[in-house]
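Section handout 9: paired folding examples.
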Amino acid sequence: MDERLDHIVETEDGNEAVEEQTADLAHDSSPAQQEACASLEDAEEPCSSAETDQPRCVEYGDAGVSSQGPTYHNQEIGRRGENAAARYLVIKGLEILERNWTCPAGEADIIARDGCCLVFCEVKTRTSLEKGLPCEAVTCEKRHKYERIAGYFLKEYDYTDMCVRFDIVDLLVVADDRALVRHFKNAYGVV
């Protein structure tokens, strides 16, 4: 099956751009990658009202994650996932306002502006489908936490006449330096 993939690349002037590629996934992918893509195609979305961009294969970061124990490993996977998600959102036209913004309610991975919309974005990264899709880790409790975080953010900063949106960016690591990314817009907002 031929599928169009976008890959984030660095241009000569140091900026990033989206390079369009076509890949024959049935022949160029490992069985594990084919299974991951098939599972993603059949998966239910985290919210039926969410608008979802087509899955994309993006640069995930430097190859190799240090083996300084499982906690460090998970933190490094998360950090690399958040970096890849931020690059992806910028290429999609969002302006990153804050990363890892903390308040008494918790931490928002990414807070961005999409036109006249303030976007609170939860990033989930997984290295396998063993525990399910990354977006499935965003529970009802996490959703309520993000709503409280939005309240604190709006109280602290003077944003007016802007809608508020809650997105999820999930990344499934398919190689040391690449991940499949899906962006769920308005993943758990009120419709």
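Moving on to protein 2 of 2.
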Amino acid sequence: MAVDKKRCTRCGKIKPHADFNKEACTATGFRADCRACRKAYRNRPDVKKQVAEYQAEYIQALRNELRCWILVILTNGRLECTLCDNTNYTSLDIDHIAEDGNKYRKNGAINILYYQKMLETGCVGLQCLCHGCNVRKSIQIK
């Protein structure tokens, strides 16, 4: 086998290095499978579903981490409701003091970028309320 060729581990064919993606951490400097086999693998429905599930889990974990940081900032590290001192983390909500949260929810803006923007602005105009206090507050306003 020539030096500028390599055997694909999926299809078993000997192909030139140009048919393989580069990968610096391998001994040859190229991926073990050729581009055509890699593309066929990525386009399989079961693999697409697995990748989509992984990405959704990753995004949810990132959202939860950003939410936690915002709650820590709002409560000065105490993680408790501003009104009733409830310390159950799972019931804590990020509340808009100016009652403008609906405009963000209607625009579908409650996502990772929105949480990052909250952190960049120092969480101005927000407070930490437990779910019960947040519901009571919204009923009192109506």
